[in-house]
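In response to the reviewer comment on reproducibility (Comment 2.3), we provide here a single inverse folding case reported in full, input and output, so that an independent group could reproduce the run without further information from us. The structure tokens appear first.
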């Protein structure tokens, strides 16, 4: 099979659908890896690293789409990319079709077979390709929040971990799923006073058993939310 990987063109997307290691695996199993020139630059992989892995560097995205049996991307194909898909071709990417009827129609019109990473389910009912993205989002949230809290960035000048004599930031994580759990871990690791809220008692028990005193847990109710987030203007926007 000829597996093509075009460069991502969605704004602020720097990832690449196929790494050099993945290309090497594909080639070792008898497939051809066709990589658009510069596709891996945003992730730190130059064309030479793909060539060393046995991949073929292709000059343009149009050539990749025209030559490949399967297209592997990160983000959903943009309008110009959808027009290059064809009947019988496979597409493997994060699609998130529910809020995007235009993309859905474009994929149907192309006749391709589109497989969404986020819908791939393992034998245990888990989502092995979606979970890592949730882990990244959770771990990044406290990092971005800490940056936003800095006075120079428009925040209140709160330090996540505090300093001797000054208490740490209070962090409330709403939802104890994959994103919330990883956010709580990182925020607690930064020294914040963290509470995770959820409405699933089994999940709260799991978090308590797994993390103990690392962060606190609470059953999510309107009353507890008001108690933990006592800002009338903010709260009124949620009611």
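Designed residues, in position order:
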């Amino acid at each position: 099979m000829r597996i093509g990987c075009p460069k991502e063109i969605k704004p602020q997307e720097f990832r690449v659908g196929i790494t050099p290691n993945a290309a090497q695996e594909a080639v070792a199993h008898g497939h051809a890896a066709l990589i658009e020139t510069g596709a891996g630059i945003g992730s730190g992989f130059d064309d030479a690293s793909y060539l060393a892995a046995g991949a073929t560097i292709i000059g343009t995205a149009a050539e990749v789409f025209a030559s490949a049996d399967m297209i592997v991307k990160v983000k959903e194909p943009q309008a110009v990319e959808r027009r290059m898909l064809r009947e019988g071709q496979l597409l493997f990417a994060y699609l998130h079709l529910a809020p995007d009827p235009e993309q859905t129609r474009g994929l149907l019109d192309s006749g391709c077979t589109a497989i969404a990473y986020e819908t791939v389910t393992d034998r245990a009912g888990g989502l092995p390709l979606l979970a890592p993205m949730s882990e990244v989002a959770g771990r990044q949230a406290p990092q971005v929040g800490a940056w936003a809290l800095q006075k120079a960035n428009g925040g209140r000048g709160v330090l996540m971990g505090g300093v001797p004599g000054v208490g740490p930031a209070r962090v409330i994580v709403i939802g104890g799923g994959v994103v919330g759990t990883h956010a709580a871990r990182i925020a607690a690791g930064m020294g914040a006073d963290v509470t995770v809220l959820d409405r699933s008692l089994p999940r709260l028990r799991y978090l308590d058993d797994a993390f103990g005193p690392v962060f606190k847990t609470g059953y999510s109710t309107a009353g507890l939310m008001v108690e933990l987030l006592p800002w009338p203007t903010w709260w009124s926007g949620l009611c």
